[in-house]
Design brief:
Rossmann fold; 4-stranded antiparallel β-sheet; Alpha-Beta Plaits; 2 domains; 312 residues; 33% helix
Length: 312
């Protein structure tokens, strides 16, 4: 019996000794400032710069600053787990080992290597808050929209015509009566949907149906408040809306996914993530996922989007 106990101890020790240290999804950030690069570009160029020009500037900047780290990642055979993000000059790396994280953290141009932490949407309250007698006629804002002085703006013709608005959220049921009419996906045909340059998901192969596009429900609600056309529920009912589905069915996402979504609303792509066209980017972006989330890491992406709006 003692011999069996000793053998079990030795086996357990061997298992612990051979176990691989737990890996972590991380974001590698760099010391150089993207928005400073754009400001420098503006100061040395004409006013004819387009969003496409800015994208090229940021991509070139990221390629230069990330080159040394990319070489290390190639040496460690992990490039298949890497996503380079030009919007804020960062790299998302899945399943990084502690030793690799330590090595990257010590590189001269790297400012930090941090966990690609999770972010959650606010909990959905399914209790109706809008009394039935507040449902208004078409052409008049309902009470919460009217409280923002939308009525006088609408009366002067400011209803969002010619403006592209984007939401980054949990998805949108694009067939909803309040949202179908001004969804870019129906711009070519009123009966056949085309999600190119209109709807983004983390995985390009994700199946989209009206019933599964927003299981959580938050994104449809937010987009309705922004651009809904029925019963006066939307601030800009004549704006064209697009959507980046960053949050999953449970209302969760990661830092890197939000940054990738922010890239997309600036320069949308086809559904398969190809053929970016910055001319189709949003003029207004809604990110209604605050609450208890600490989102200071998103500030560089916000700043770049602010700068890009000079050309809108």
């Amino acid at each position: 019996m003692k011999g069996l106990y000793a053998a079990l101890l030795i086996l357990t020790s061997c298992l612990y000794a051979s176990a691989t240290p737990e890996s972590t999804d991380v974001i590698i950030r760099f010391k150089s400032s993207n928005h400073a690069v754009l400001e420098a570009h503006y100061s040395s160029s004409t006013d004819t710069s387009t969003r496409s020009d800015l994208k090229v500037v940021l991509e070139q900047h990221a390629a230069t600053k990330q080159a040394a780290v990319m070489q290390i990642l190639e040496t460690h055979n992990v490039l298949n787990r890497v996503t380079s993000l030009w919007l804020d000059n960062s790299i998302a790396l899945r399943s990084a080992s502690p030793s690799l994280i330590s090595k990257l953290s010590k590189m001269d141009d790297v400012s930090e290597v941090v966990e690609d932490s999770q972010i959650s949407l606010p909990a959905m309250d399914v209790t109706p808050t809008q009394p039935e007698d507040d449902i208004t006629d078409v052409g008049k804002p309902q009470s919460n929209i009217a409280a923002l002085n939308t009525g006088p703006l609408w009366a002067k013709g400011y209803t969002g015509e010619g403006v592209v608005v984007a939401t980054i959220d949990s998805g949108v049921r694009w067939t909803h009566e309040a949202l179908r009419g001004n969804y870019r996906g129906f711009a070519k045909s009123k009966t056949v949907v085309d999600h190119d340059y209109a709807f983004w998901t983390v995985n390009a192969s994700t199946m989209l149906t009206p019933d599964t596009a927003d299981i959580y429900g938050h994104g449809t609600h937010v987009t309705g408040t922004l651009a809904g056309q029925a019963q006066g529920i939307g601030m800009a009912p004549n704006a064209t809306w697009i959507h980046a589905k960053a949050f999953d069915w449970s209302g969760g996402t990661s830092q890197s996914t939000l940054i990738a979504a922010a890239q997309w609303v600036l320069c949308p792509t086809k559904r398969d993530h190809t053929s970016a066209d910055c001319s189709k980017g949003a003029h207004v972006i809604s990110c209604s996922f605050g609450g208890n989330n600490s989102l200071t890491w998103l500030n560089p992406s916000v700043k770049v989007n602010e700068i890009s709006l000079r050309d809108s």
